[in-house]
Amino acid sequence: MKELSKTITLAPKSKIRELFDLAAGRSDVISLGIGQPDFLTPQPAIDGTIAALNKKITYYAPTRGVPALLQSIEKKLKVDNNITTNWKDNIIVTNGGSQALNLTFATLFNPGDEMILSSPNFISYFYLGLFYKVKVIEAQRRPDFGPDIEKMERLITKKTKAILINSPNNPTGYALTRKELDQIINLASSYDLYLITDEVYENYLYDGTIHTSPASLDEMFNRTITINAMSKLFSATGFRLGYVVANKDIINLMENYHQYTAAGTNHAAQYGFIEALNMDKSFFSPILQSFYQRRNLVYKRLNELDLKVSKPKGAFYIMPSLKNYNINGIEFSEKLMKEQAVALVPGNAFGSYSDTMIRISYATTIEKLEEAMNRIEKFVKTL
Ligand SMILES: Cc1ncc(COP(=O)(O)O)c(C=O)c1O
């Protein structure tokens, strides 16, 4: 048989998926690996989808998305993010945040272009770079996981086309301060770069931290590509719905690419998304409160074990360093799984600067987190 695609062959199976496989069929495993909130998808999202199916909405949706959904997103952007859009020009509905990213890479970049991000960062950015032949330039984060703006500036070359930010961040839990965001915006404007902002965790924020969408700020809309999804806020990762917000030219190009590669998204589910967006946001308050308690618990226990980490300000991940234990993330996660049946992700999944770290997702119950931390404690004492 002839050789398969060299590019795709270079992308190994996702480490997070491997973890799923290791844990499959083992009832004793506690998973701290998955980026999936544990609360039930709000009922209106489900009812809206079922109602659409009962109306036999089983045919192709408009490529950009159902107008009523685009209008709901336009309203959400104005109310929640202070971003002014025109739903006819500036929004496209996608198959999750993942495809929103895919469309962004497909339409922004030419082979050889460079894109700068802070590292560690979300795994898919690196592979999308590989698939679209974009050089992903990693600016190592500061020890507290904040962006090193001076380093980012030093890494800008003639080939740099975009900066990508993800705040609150997966895997570090870092959320940009307003000052840091302004500095990044300043870089993007001064060097005429696009700013890709992945905001899928915008609602998961602690300690009074405030999220600002760069597309809401003066002069930034035109150069900003905003990515968001239904997945995390509504605990609806299986709905596979997300969206991109950008200028008209970018959205037009995305529509072209989208029609030949995906031909739209699930039609009926878009009606579920409309109902979810219509919900009173207060549904999320008790959920956020519970995630806050989980973060506090895990942070405290990790510190007691000398697994050093700065306190996450957002999302539902925490990324401790293993430096005090002279073990790398791969060894730690494999042994922990074998000896104590706790699944977490080795840091090297998230870039070049996190080999001696692990990522823990605390999107699970306090009881399970306590048990998992007891097991981690037992394991760490053997090191
Ligand atoms: C930072 C970030 N962006 C995008 C995604 C993809 O989201 P979706 O599940 O909607 O495709 C994820 C999923 O974990 C993520 O962590």
Q: How many domains would you count in the coordinates?
A: 2
Oligomer: single chain
Structural class: alpha/beta
Please state the CA-atom Rg, rounded to the nearest Å: 21 Å
CATH topology annotation of the largest domain: Aspartate Aminotransferase, domain 2
- Roughly what is the average pLDDT, rounded to an integer? 96
Q: What's the helix count?
A: 14
Amount of beta strand: 5-15%
Q: What is the CATH superfamily label of the largest domain?
A: Type I PLP-dependent aspartate aminotransferase-like (Major domain)
Low-confidence stretches: none
Strand order in the sheet with the most strands: 2-8-7-6-5-3-4
Ligand set: pyridoxal-5'-phosphate
Spatial gap, N to C terminus:
47 Å
How many strand segments? Answer: 12
The CATH first-level class of the largest domain comes to Alpha Beta
Order of helices and strands: HHEHHHEHEHEHEHEEEHHHEHEEEH
Largest sheet: 7 strands, mixed
Q: Estimate the global geometry from the Cα principal axes.
A: globular
Helix content: 40-55%
Architecture per CATH nomenclature, i.e. the level-2 architecture of the largest domain: 3-Layer(aba) Sandwich
